[in-house]
Amino acid sequence: MNIAIADRLVRLRSARGWTQEELAEKLDVSRQAVSKWERAEASPDIDKLIALSRLYGVTLDELLETGIAAADTPEGNGPPSGAQEKPAGEDAAPEWVQDGVTAVLLGDGGEELAALAGEDAPEFLPTGRRSAEWMVNRFPYPVLVALVYVALGFAGGWWHPAWLLFLTIPLYYLAGPGIDKAREAPGVWGSIHAFLLSSGLLPVLIASLYLAMGVLWGWWHPGWCVFLLLPLFYCLPEPSGRP
Fold first, then answer.
1. Per-residue pLDDT at 147
2. Terminal C-alpha separation, the chain
3. According to the 3-state scheme, what is the secondary structure of 62-110?
4. Dihedral sign of CA atoms 77, 79, 85, 91 in order
5. Residue 75, pLDDT above cutoff 70
6. Range 160-179 average pLDDT
7. How far apart are the C-alpha atoms of 195 and 181, rounded to whole Å?
8. What are the pLDDT digits (tens) for 97-145?
């Protein structure tokens, strides 16, 4: 996948206000697949490219153009789908307003609108529209864990077992998509079930808990019994009324 195409995919998705998970659902693929496309680590199949071009309202040629082209925005050099033109004075730059976000277009408006639709676009959106996954990825949690670990090590000599804090890093990044799904689920049990099932957090959590019990208290046995929670959870029926 060309890096220019990958960047364009990011901008087109951000311009629609979709998360990677929402786009993945529309294309019937995994979020990891979308993430790989946008990092230029993999290329979509031809059927997915066709589906992407239809979703974004561009042709395949515009989608796959490797140079700087008008296709960098969802509708060429025009505003995003659903945007309305805001009247401007004779000497004022034209503006476009969409969902409470105002974009001031200079010149032909292409570069400025592309910047608004780029990776920093979520910063212009109301907080309520930001997904938990986006907020989780923006926070430098591994850096925080490293700083806390070093502080505990020098202050109290707790190099061991403070290293167990690093086990929380995969838990942290798995939580974001789960929170987004939990928000859509009905009821308390529905939210818990959606969170654990969609995030894939439960197996990692169980393994981390077992390792912590073994290292801290030597409970390798009967601590292994916590793994019995895995088949028990996946055998439970899904809550009725889940989308």
1. 95
2. 34
3. HHHCCCCCHHHCCCCCCCCCCCEEECCCCCCCCEEEECCEEEECCCCCH
4. negative
5. no
6. 84
7. 6
8. 444 444 444 444 444 444 444 444 443 333 444 577 778 888 899 999 9
